[in-house]
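Thread: Newbie trying to understand structure tokens

Hi all, I'm a second-year student working on a class project, and my supervisor (Dr. K.) asked me to get a predicted structure for one chain before our next meeting. I've only ever worked with sequences, so writing a 3D structure as a token string is new to me. If someone could post the tokens and maybe explain what I'm looking at, I'd be very grateful. Here's the chain:
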Amino acid sequence: MKKIVIIANGEPPTPDQLKTIKTQYDYIIAADGGICWCLDNDVTPDCLIGDMDSFDSLPVGISQSTKLLRIPDQNTTDMQKALAYAASLNPEVIEVFASFGKRTDHSLGNVFILNNYSARPKLIMHDHFGTFSILMPGIEKFSNKKGQTISLFALSELLDIQLDGFEFPVNREKLATPFLGVSNMIAKDSASISFEKGKLLVYELNQ
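---
Reply by user tm_fold:
Sure, no problem. This is what the structure looks like when written as tokens:
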């Protein structure tokens, strides 16, 4: 299984994101209240997971083909439950929609989830304007993204970080937390971010 998508219960996906969700993923997971958006938009999730506290009874119209996983554990959020299950299916990438935009505490909680995530498999969280992902030590290359705006947030001390091909390059510097580089821009057809130690939160603005 290559690509898994999780639908959370935040700001609903856009019409363009709906098309992507329907066509580009091998497995769809609704995280608790995310099932309501799925039903409203003719999306049949392969799995509904969570503590099921977003509704008094399961919504009418859930397909019999949808696997139901009720996990009452209150020590983890529905997002954490969905991510753990998705990771157990060994995908190459997990993408999350509707994880931001309603309650600020839930949005902030999902940023902390990103911070605590091991980056295996790759995790991408979408909002209406762009995507969040985590980079671990190594090199990340960006091709054919000239003009794209990217913001960087150090989640731990970064050692020997280098930004090549950016409007504001960085040459093997040590950056302590809290560091943020908001609205940098890719200036060349080929660009890269590399560092030896630390964890970096990256926000890519949709082009």
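A couple of things are worth pointing out once you decode it. The domain at 135-205 is CATH 2.60.120.320 (Jelly Rolls). The chain is about 20% helix and 35% strand. Feel free to ask follow-ups in this thread.
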